[in-house]
Amino acid sequence: MKIRALIVDDEPLARKRIHLFLRDEPDVEIVGECVNGTDAIKQIGRHIPDLVFLDVQMPEVNGFDVLRALPAKRWPMVIFVTAHDQHALEAFEVHALDYLLKPFKETRFRQALQRVRQNLKTQAIQGQNQHFQEWLAQNSAYPSRLTVKSGEHTAFVEVADVDFIEAAANYAILHVGAINHILRETLTNLEAKLSPKRFLRVNRSAIVNLDRIKAVEPATRGEHVVVLKNGKEISLTRGVREVQQRLESL
Amino acid sequence: MGSPGMRVAPDVLIYLMAMSACVAFAHFRKSQERDRRAIELEASLAQARLQALRMQINPHFLFNTLNAISTLVHTCPQTADEMITDLSELFRASLESSADHEISLARELELLQRYLDIEQRRFGERLKVEQDIEPGILPARVPTLILQPLVENAIRHGIERHTEIGIIAIHAVREGNQIKLSVANNGKKTFDAAILVGNRHGIGLANTRARLQQLYGAEQSFTVSDGELGGWTVEIKIPFCPAPTTKAIS
To answer: Is the N-terminal amide bond of B135 cis, ω within 30° of 0?
Structure first.
């Protein structure tokens, strides 16, 4: 994809110089030239360029005014091109990519463009990262409630209220205090919906809310059971140490 | 008892001595006055040169001009060539050390043209210069570098600050035993014409005014008024003097 550039300078020969140098850059497309700041604000709004070569000292509306007139998130990449070095600090403050002092060498100009490309690359990577992070955030957010349908009736059960879940053929029974909800869902599916930080599959047919475990006790033949706060005992087929670790990390 | 003549003689002597002392003192005062005036004139010419130089090394003018030249080197070497010599000539005139307080109007206009040519190329269509010079007065003497600061002011406050086309009108006519030089611009008035002479922006004009006073005393006038073009007009009237004078030595 081409870099779409806008040239802003009130002096025709100054615009021409940039135009001239950009002719040798096949990945840059000039979308417009502006003769003053007001014109620049208009054209940035219309073309939404990726890059703006921006003169500072222009009649009525100067280069900084142009940026100030636009919402910061719509700022294109900016290369200031000016005869004055005293604006450099302010340019830095508005996150200009580069600051070219007139007259500038051609190599210096190419360098500035290289910086633009580098910046685009970084932005792209950051963009991808951001997408991934968003995807992750969406998918790692375990639902805080489960939907339970029975006939016409739909109930919502707070995950935190579930004591344990028991498998019964193709159904799962949610034990919520004194109430049992029956869900048409396999235990494995349910397990995936629940945060591993809060729930543990203690055996083939039970998931326990770690918060409800009162004790882990030895049972017959070297096996163990987890004892819930409500007194219920569920056999444990996992390693005791793992369970202990999980409980300690709560 | 001496003769009455003998009695008179000492009085006459004293009288003559007193007279000659007075005359000598008057001469001394006069020559002192002349020295002071010469020094003042010297200083104001130096000031005018310094001012012209300051304008030329003003980064906005100098670097934008060099930037324009650097473009023309690629696109139009002939024009670049001319611009370099124009710039050199301007510098040479202001670096000159001759004590000529006055030059011919023709020479003054020639220098001015160098400056205008540069500005014309920088601003292109945005700058329109109208010149109306009475051909008969071209040999007339005018203060060295009198027009340049006026025109520069007109451009800086007219063209460089406004987006519309800027017009600079330069007139030189003979009015009886005086010549009238005027510089006018169009556009919005950024500040009151009267203030213009006194404030920071008007330093150039204040110096011009003082210089005229030193050179011509009561025989000159300097006015700033609302111009017919919408901007303001600076008008100078000085004695019409078609041949070189000895002002430089006086």
So the answer is: no
